[in-house]
Amino acid sequence: MDAKNALERRCPRLGGPVTFQYCKECGEDGLPCFKVLDCWWETFDAVAYFKARLTEDQMSRLVHAKPKPKISSLIDLIQQAKKTMKEVTSERSEK
């Protein structure tokens, strides 16, 4: 298991603490968050970390990623929350 996964910091987008594990997975298409390099560069060499783990195309997409308009981000977050709630409700009803 990657020792960096449990590292935590305040997320400038969400306003609360998140783990590096979350940052690695919360971006589009399962890629890291578009801000991951900006957020983690002071803690460790985030560029080298991702260069070793992503394809050239994925790394290029990460480096050149731009944020979505705020409204699009909010709609995506609402849809993700609805999906999560359905999954949690489904798991509880199966028990």
Report on the biggest sheet: 2 strands, antiparallel
Average pLDDT, all residues: 85
Q: How large is the radius of gyration?
A: 15 Å
SS strand fraction: 5-15%
What is the CA-CA span between the terminal residues? Answer: 30 Å
Strand order of the largest sheet: 1-2
List the uncertain runs.
none
Gross morphology: globular
Order of helices and strands: EEHHHHH
Sum this structure up briefly.
With 95 residues, the chain is mainly α. The chain folds into 2 domains: 1-64, no CATH class; 67-95. It has helices spanning 20-25, 36-40, 46-51, 56-63, 70-94; strands at 8-10, 17-19.
Question: How is this fold's topology laid out?
Answer:
Elements: E1 8-10, E2 17-19, H1 20-25, H2 36-40, H3 46-51, H4 56-63, H5 70-94
Antiparallel strand pairs: 1-2
Kindly describe this structure.
The protein is mainly alpha-helical and about 100 residues long. It has 2 domains: about 1-65, no CATH class; about 65-95. It contains 5 helices and 2 strands, in the order ββααααα. The protein has helices at about 20-25, 35-40, 45-50, 55-65, 70-95; strands at about 10, 15-20. A two-stranded antiparallel ribbon has the order 1-2.
